[in-house]
Design goal:
The protein is built from two helices and no strands. The protein has one domain.
Amino acid sequence: MNLTLRMAIDLYNKLKKIALEDERSINGEINFIIKKYIDEREKKDEK
């Protein structure tokens, strides 16, 4: 699936820095963050 994501340049630059530190692409970092958020949300919803 292709998806266009618009974000503020300062947010993009911060995300890019984190992705480089974690040795991920920006796309990989976004997927990691979203998966982590969903996992935490599902745990919260189970309670």
